[in-house]
Design goal:
single chain, 286 residues, mainly alpha, flat
């Protein structure tokens, strides 16, 4: 259960970061154009409250609170509706802010789907303490051998889980790729107060942030062995690998990392599900 819950917590922390970034893009910082000046009806500041609330709930979920997980599912539904709406109804916003709103809504959708899956998985297992089962820190009591083997096999057949090594490899390379893309965007000047964000010409450099968010969202599913997500991750990596060098300031590093991600994901697909432990005693053991 801890392995299934960990991506939810990481995505929640990533969503908190997006809330903070959105506040900065809206100009909500000391001396900024929307720092309690009445702009956006003083509602843009609520992004920081969402970030704090989201982080607190993430910590509680990581500690094994089932009620916190249920609350986070409800919050995801709220944010999926609220983020796109507040991108427009409060007045004209910079395009970078609008993109961040929709990226946050996309992350929230992934959180909702993953959290529901974890919650249903937890209730499908026999356990006297559901909070202990959800906890990332508390060891879960082992099920009887026959039941444990049967549950493990059915879970692997249903999810097509890949080996832990491949999962860590895909996740680590994707995180490195996202860091390189964000660094590239900052280096090119696509930061608050920097270059103008637009939908044409040299103002398209902000798309690296979108690619970073998409890569992380898809990888969150790919590390569980989801074939569709893994193929989508390969497609994203190849798109980044083939980008025009002018579009990526750190194109050399990004290209190599993208190629490594595509190869690692393809290798995981070829490798198939994690091998099952034999349940029949060997001759030596006999």
């Amino acid at each position: 259960m801890a392995g299934a819950l960990r991506p939810v917590v990481l995505l929640m922390l990533f969503a908190s970061l997006l809330f903070v970034i959105d506040g900065l893009f809206d100009g909500v910082y000391p001396g900024g154009p929307a720092w309690f000046t009445g702009r956006y009806e003083n509602l843009a500041e609520i992004a920081y409250i969402f970030a704090i609330l989201n982080t607190v709930v993430a910590v509680m979920v990581a500690r094994g609170s089932e009620r916190s997980l249920q609350s986070r599912i409800a919050l995801s539904v709220f944010f999926i509706i609220e983020r796109p709406l507040t991108a427009f109804i409060l007045g004209p916003k910079p395009i970078e802010s609008v993109v961040t709103h929709f990226a946050t809504a996309g992350v929230e959708l992934v959180i909702l789907v993953t959290a529901l899956r974890v919650w249903r998985l937890g209730h499908s297992l026999a356990s006297g303490d559901v909070d202990m089962l959800f906890s990332l820190e508390t060891p879960v009591p082992a099920a009887p051998p026959d039941e444990a083997v049967a549950a493990e096999r059915s879970t692997r057949r249903a999810s097509g889980a890949i080996t832990a090594r491949n999962a860590w490899l895909i996740g680590g390379i994707t995180l490195l790729l996202a860091i390189v893309l964000v660094a590239d965007g900052a280096y090119e000047g696509f930061v608050p107060g920097g270059r103008e964000w637009s939908t044409s010409g040299d103002g398209l450099g902000w798309l690296v942030y979108l690619f970073a968010a998409v890569a992380l969202i898809v990888a969150a599913r790919a590390v569980h062995g989801r074939r569709l997500a893994m193929r989508a991750l390969i497609a994203v990596a190849l798109i980044l690998f083939e980008q025009d060098p002018i579009a990526l300031g750190l194109h050399a590093v990004a290209a190599f990392v993208s190629l490594a991600l595509a190869l690692a994901t393809a290798s995981a697909i070829r490798g198939g599900p994690a091998p099952e432990q034999a349940s029949v005693p060997t001759l030596e053991a006999a």
